[in-house]
Amino acid sequence: MILLISDLHLEEERPDITRAFLDFLSGRARSAQALYILGDFFEAWIGDDAMTPYQRSICEALRELSDSGTHVFLMHGNRDFLLGQAFCKAAGCTLLKDPSVVDFYGEPVLLMHGDSLCTRDEAYMRLRRYLRNPVTLWILRHLPLRTRHTLARKLRSESRAQTRMKANDIVDVTPEEVPRIMEHFGVKTLIHGHTHRPAIHKLQIGEHAAKRIVLGDWDKQGWALQVDEQGMQLAAFDFVNPQLALPNATQ
Question: pTM score, two decimals?
């Protein structure tokens, strides 16, 4: 069994999400062969050298899961793209490139965070290209901590304000971009997060049936995609009881 989650936006101000995630790690994830976290794991990350005691506790929980035998894979999101190898080494996880093709029970599957699919949001795409530039990343990682804290707060505030002003279709994936990138990587299944719109979309790419699976964000409930030899099941679960799938689960 393989589990995939994304968009937890972990922060100390949301102890309910933190508790649910820790319960998830000590319960369901322990029986998984692998856990994939597809970005926006943390609400904000300003550098591996700036880990708070809270973030360190999450790191230690991931290490315990990894030491138990579950392989843990982590992908950058738009909120935590400064996560680095130092964190991954301490947490016992592997940092995945976005996008990455992985093998799930003999099928090649494309994994992405999903923000790069929102190409109609031209302002964000320009910002993304700037922030992900290796030179920019080097500069950001070497800024004083106080400056990084200030910059992170500013970016989060501006992002929230701009998202509220943008049309729904602008902040969702571009329909034409999905088959383009799936054809480019030669896959029939794409899994991503970012949009906070959990669903399984059936597609037709050329002569082949395909699907795009959107992982849900963790806010009032959690979401996880379970992959096994019988197929893929996307379901929500209650924070109080992570083993309990909710009635509005997406199959």
Answer: 0.91
